[in-house]
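User: I'm writing a short report section on ligand binding and want a predicted complex to refer to. Could you take this sequence and adenosine-5'-diphosphate and write out the structure as tokens? A short remark afterwards would be nice.
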Amino acid sequence: MPRLPWFHRRRDGAGGILERAPFLSVLEPELRQRVRKRLTRRKVESGKSLYRQGEAADALYLIESGRFRLFVSERPGQERVLQFLGSGEIIGEAAFIAETAYVTSAIAIEDAFVLRLARADFDNLLGKNDAILRYLAGVISERQALANARLAAESQPEESRASRGFVTAVYSPRGGSGVTTIALNLAIALAQRHPDDVALLDLDVLFGHALGSLWLEPRGVLAQASPVTLRTLDRPGLDIYLIPHSSSLRIFPAATKPEEGQTITAEQVHAIVTVLRRHFGYVVLDLPHTFSEIALSGLELADRVLVIATPESTSLRDVLETRRILTEVLSLPTARLAYVLNRPHPYASLGVSEFAAATAAPWTEIGHGGDAPATAALRGESLVDTRRNNAVVRGVIALAEQITTEAREHAALSGRSA
Ligand SMILES: Nc1ncnc2c1ncn2[C@@H]1O[C@H](COP(=O)(O)OP(=O)(O)O)[C@@H](O)[C@H]1O
Ligand SMILES: [Mg+2]
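Assistant: Sure. The structure tokens for the complex follow:
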């Protein structure tokens, strides 16, 4: 089945979606050219709909830029969000192929451009093309599985909603690598993409940076809650602890002071992660820089571990040692680890290629963001909101896209096996 490789292709220049979209790339060049000639561009402003539930599907759309929220409304004012789609992805395909009315509505969440292929043109050019029909069938079944998984998760009783949320742990064996900076800004970037569906668990208990960075005051902390209390928290109970940030991110604080943080047990971490992933689609863990009980239990619970390094040879050695401990001692699957080279300082000794070669794994790079990350923290501002062009912001947005894709696949998979 064709996959949707949009996240690692989105930023490769303005070369155009027409070269990169899988929808077109499955076609022979000559046919692709003919299809391109029939596409018409349409702008959809942020907040406006591309189509609405109940309307007839008379065209197929390819998203050129921008993002759409797909949802079903059961009653006016009440919507269930099914999916977000962006650049390079097709939209409205299920109703188009089935020749039925749309069962979802699609609203632009940022200014968007779509390329429209009318039904008559589709029938003429593609109606008998096996490659495109297979591609569309693949997309339809993948999205159907995803929607089913989401609806099934939502309709389950609260206690059995075991693992809806996708847990991303951010870890480095060395302090000052940018773990808190990346965890916090990644969580904010995710929250902008998935409103009200993201929580950050601030386990960097020695300094409690995530909270300190945003100048938020905790009302209750992990260190003071028993595992039994934590496990039985319903949403209103959880909300007492959660600190809301303007991006819609919720932050669960671990401790009010370092000595309190050191009393946290694996059982408490386990209990709170279980509760958070029941209520949030995305959970980010800001882990301490040790192989303490807290860090190890966070690492074990994560669906994705981001190992953060800085461009020095000592850091590379730390990464190799970390990988050995995580895979051989903790028995985490190697595939669960992903690597990020962060540049807290302007000078650089090693490049990303040296890290990639030494680990035989792909690396994501986050550039040096100047003073902005530190000053934003001091002022209690969030970098993602105020500095869209900062290297750290660009880096975490790319990570948020990758995590989003992984979480979708994860949900589709657990939906299938359930
Ligand atoms: N890519 C970057 N560019 C600029 N400054 C950074 C970057 N990453 C981290 N920093 C700064 O480095 C310092 C340490 O980062 P922090 O996130 O607290 O590290 P850790 O949680 O790993 O100890 C902070 O002052 C932070 O603002
Ligand atoms: Mg930290």
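A remark for your report: The chain has two domains: 17-155, 163-417. The first helix runs from residue 17 to 20.
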